[in-house]
Structures are given as C-alpha cells and as structure tokens.
Write a structure and sequence with these properties.
Layout lengths: L2 E9 L3 H12 L5 E3 L13 E2 L8 E2 H14 L3 E3 L3 E5 L5 E5 L4 E9 L3 E3 L5 H5 L5 E2 L2 H4 L7 E5 L3 H10 L5 E5 L9 H8 L4 E4 L2 E10 L2 E10 L5 E5 L2 E4 L3 E3 L10 E2 L3 E2 L13 E3 L11 H34 L1
Parallel strand pairs: 1-2, 1-8, 2-5, 8-21, 10-17, 11-12, 11-17, 12-13
Antiparallel strand pairs: 3-4, 6-7, 7-8, 9-18, 14-15, 15-16, 19-20
Helix pairs in contact: 1-2, 1-7, 5-6
Bound molecules: flavin-adenine dinucleotide and NADP nicotinamide-adenine-dinucleotide phosphate (NAP).
C-alpha cells in the first residue's frame, strides 16, 4: 500500500485549506493537501461572490480555481483523495484515504469545512435528487419556466432564491419566522424581485409528488402559530437551512462544541491535541465566511510552523541534556 509522509498534512481544499497551503509552502514545509470530494469547497456551488476583498465580483468556482493554482505554484502537493480515517493519538499522526493511500504527518491542519443541513423529513429524503436539492447553482437549470420553493432565511436561502429567478417562473421562499437573517442588501434585492414571494412563519411539513417516475409536484407548509397547512404546487424544492461542520473524522478525538464545531484555543487554531490545528467553517460557528476561513488557514499554517520548530528544538535538546 502506497504511503506518503509530510511535515504538514492539510485536509480540505476550501479557502482555509488553500490559504494554509500557500503559507506552509512559502515556509518551505512542503505540505500535502488532500482535496476531498468537493475540490474548492463550498464556494464552488455558488455563483457571484461579492465580498472577497479585491474583487468586487468574482465567480465562486473561479476564485477557488485561482486559489488552487496559487497553492500549486508555491509548491503544495495537491492530492485528489478523501480522508476516511485519522489517528491523532500519537505523532506522527496517521491517516488513510479512500484511494488506499496512507499518510503520516508531523502536524495536521484540519480544514474540512461544512456541509449542507437537511430537515430530516422522510419525504425530503424520498425526493432528494428528484426535485429536492440543496444546491441551486447545481440544479437550478432544470427549473426553467417552473415553480420552485426555497426553505430558509439566511444568506444562502436568499441567494439561492435570487439565483433561481434566472430560470424559474416563480420562487417562493418559505421561512419559519417573520424576519430574515440574511444581509440587508440581499433582503432588499429579494423583496424587490417580481418573481419572488415570501411565505412567512411557515415550516415545510411534507414534499409530495409522483413516485414512478419520481418527481415533485408540491409542498405542504405548516403555519407555526395556528398549525394550518398551506399547499403550494411546485416542481422543485431547495433546502437552504445552513450547514453543519464536517467533523465526523475527529469528533471522538478532539474537543467539539455547538453541535460538532472543533474547539480551538481563543485567538488561535490550536485544537485539544498539540500539533493538530483547525481552520475555517469546521471550527467557526459565528462568521462562516470565505475571508475568515482564509484568515484562519493563514493562522493555522503559521502556528503549525512554530509547533514544528519547537518540536524539532526539543528533539535537538533532548540528547544534549541526557549527556549533561
Ligand atoms: P469549505 O469551503 O467547506 O471546504 C471544505 C473542504 O474540505 C472541501 O474541499 C472538502 O472536499 C474537504 N473535505 C471535507 N471532508 C474531507 C475529508 N474527509 N477528506 C478530505 N477533504 C475533505 N462566504 C463568503 O464569504 N461570501 C460568499 O458570497 C459566500 N457565498 C456562499 C454561498 C453558498 C451557497 C455557500 C454554501 C456558502 C457561501 N459562503 C460565502 C460561505 C463560504 O463558502 C464558507 O465560509 C467557506 O467556503 C468555508 O471555507 P472552508 O475552507 O472552511 O471549507
Ligand atoms: P444560516 O445563516 O445559519 O441560516 C440558516 C437559516 O435556515 C436561518 O434562517 C434559519 O432560521 C433557517 N433554519 C435552520 N434550521 C431550520 C429548520 N429546521 N427549519 C426551517 N428553517 C431552518 O445559514 P446560511 O444561510 O447557509 O449561511 C451560513 C454561513 O455562510 C453564514 O455565516 C453566512 O453569512 C455565510 N454565507 C455568506 C454569504 C454571503 O456573504 N453572501 C452567502 C451564503 C452564506 P432562523 O433564522 O429562524 O434561525
């Protein structure tokens, strides 16, 4: 079985992972970065990014392709693999990829980000891939001239709803409260869009449709105060209720909080295991932005560099002190 040893193993290829890779490469640490099943991370499933400093507008996939190129150009070894298990109980840390490749590393930077959350309704599960989606950028094209609903009230839901207006005849945003948490500028665009309607104070209770072939025909939404059910015909349902940290790999080995976010020391990316650093959405339940993820990726690389330097100093000192 093939094996790779590296001073720094970076797991994840979103803004946090690629930024860590740029800094670690420029520190001559020859990092290995494992991309996972979503090379480029969450920004590859969106369109316009308007808050990345230096670009008043850039397409998410383009921004991430540029980050990948940057990381490669400064010397990062980028591996197309998915880490299925990791052992953080002793150094060097070891990991195994889906490819069968095994890895060992003196330090690890975890940048596995977050994944879309689902409501957990049986009917949502039944129609996943047949009209129920968590990615308008990926699936919006199929709804040209059709009616769709979007569930949620954050930035993602509002952006998804606006994006879907490019294709759909009508977009209904269903939100469980009477205010959105999305940025004001996005709310303004949503409320002024002629194709958009908002159904306030409602929760999705069921997706219904045909079974053979499977296809969505509508949703039932429940009024949160009265319990009354509203039936809306539609062809597609986009669930945009946030993201959960991708911490399954390490949940039993590192301290986590707030439903799985990896705990880091305040003002740092150090986790509960020395030599293991966490950056980006995996550890951030507050900001969850590309730029903050990139910032944490930078911090993680600088902290990993200092950690490796201190460990190698200790190793150099050890024999001398035994002699003395
Ligand atoms: P992610 O981008 O989540 O990347 C995680 C990486 O880890 C992926 O490459 C994945 O393949 C990899 N990975 C996961 N598990 C493993 C494993 N076991 N082995 C190997 N690799 C693994 N933020 C903004 O600032 N501006 C925006 O306009 C904006 N728009 C957004 C639009 C949408 C639709 C979404 C969903 C998010 C948006 N965000 C935006 C938020 C932003 O995308 C995230 O904050 C950011 O991508 C987090 O970066 P990250 O590096 O922590 O992780
Ligand atoms: P979010 O901000 O956590 O919003 C999730 C939304 O879904 C909330 O409105 C929430 O309702 C609703 N929700 C959660 N669980 C629900 C349930 N079980 N049933 C019904 N509704 C439910 O998530 P997000 O919008 O995906 O954003 C995640 C992060 O990425 C944020 O930090 C965001 O700023 C960032 N992001 C940024 C941009 C941008 O900068 N343009 C774009 C996209 C995402 P409540 O409001 O009632 O809690």
């Amino acid at each position: 079985m093939a094996h790779k040893h590296t001073k720094i193993l970076i797991i994840g290829s979103g803004p946090a992972g690629y930024t860590a890779a740029v800094y670690a490469s420029r520190a001559m640490l020859q990092p290995v970065l494992v991309q996972g099943i979503q090379p480029g991370g969450q920004l590859t499933i969106t369109t316009e990014v308007e808050n990345w400093p230096g670009d008043s507008m850039v397409q998410g996939p383009e921004l991430m392709a540029r980050m990948e190129t940057h990381a490669r150009e400064v010397g990062t070894e980028i591996v197309s693999d998915y880490i299925q298990s990791i052992d953080l109980s002793h150094r060097p840390f070891t990991a195994t990829g889906d490819s069968g490749l095994t890895y060992s590393a003196d330090a690890v930077i975890l940048a596995t980000g977050a994944q879309a959350r689902w409501l957990g309704l049986p009917s949502e599960e039944a129609f996943k891939g047949f009209g129920v989606s968590a990615c308008a950028t990926c699936d919006g094209f199929f709804y040209r001239g059709k009616q769709v609903v979007v569930i949620g009230g954050g930035n993602t839901a509002v952006e998804e709803a606006l994006f879907l207006t490019n294709f759909a005849a009508k977009v209904t945003l269903i939100h469980r409260r009477d205010t959105l948490r999305a940025e004001k500028i996005l709310q303004h665009r949503l409320f002024n869009h002629p194709k958009v309607e908002v159904l306030w104070n409602h929760e999705l209770s069921e997706v219904f449709g045909s079974r053979n072939p499977p296809g969505v025909q509508g949703v039932r939404a429940k009024d949160v105060s009265s319990g009354a059910i509203t039936e809306l015909p539609c062809d597609g349902v986009f669930i945009a209720i946030g993201h959960a940290p991708a911490s399954e790999l390490v949940r039993d080995q590192l301290e986590t909080h707030h439903g799985g976010y990896v705990v880091t020391r305040p003002g740092s990316t150090e986790t509960s295991v020395p030599g293991v650093f966490a950056a980006g959405d995996l550890t951030d339940h507050v900001y969850r932005q590309a730029v903050t993820s990139a910032g944490m990726g930078c911090m993680a690389a600088l902290e990993a560099e200092r950690f490796l330097a201190s460990v190698s100093e200790d190793e150099e000192d050890a024999p001398r002190s035994r002699v003395a």
